[in-house]
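quick one before i forget lol
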Amino acid sequence: MALPLASWPLPTGEELRDRLAAAYAAPGRDYHDTRHLAEVLARLAELAERGAAYDRVPVLLAAWFHDGVYDGERDAEERSAVWAEDALEGLVPPDVVAEVARLVRLTETHRPEDGDANGSALSDADLAILAAPDERYREYVASVRREFAHLPDELFRKGRAQVLRALAEKEHLFHTAWARAQWEAPARANLERELAELTIAGG
């Protein structure tokens, strides 16, 4: 999926946009790559078309930045947020900078508060891959494994299972009306199937 450069929501800042695009295209990114960013942007457009109301500029900027830094370390979201705070200064008003950074940090937990329209839209778009059809979901799982190729199988399975169980234990995976109606059930089915496969593989 080609990266839709037109989704950059500012009339300026093309150099920054291109730096972000280059970051997503960097070697070693198998899932958190250009395709993922393009899919998140596409899902945000879908949510808007289906009635989700959110502030376009900060949400789209947060989508561009949310995996701007990705190296498998736990503080990648924080470093992405700091990059946004530094890079956006002077391009947008301070309140927009603060909102972008808040949204990027939210993608670490995907737990927006009730009434957080911006956070709900970004979180849902980021997690929409969980509801993908079987072939795409398996591609996603395989690409995540490649990003953690340095881990032995047993350690990866344990960590992956913890991530999936934490998601499965959420009352709702999705927070916007459209996503909850269309994506919740297939996402939970994918999670259950992958957890079962991890259990079998682990003996």
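fyi Residues 184-201 form the longest helix (18 residues).
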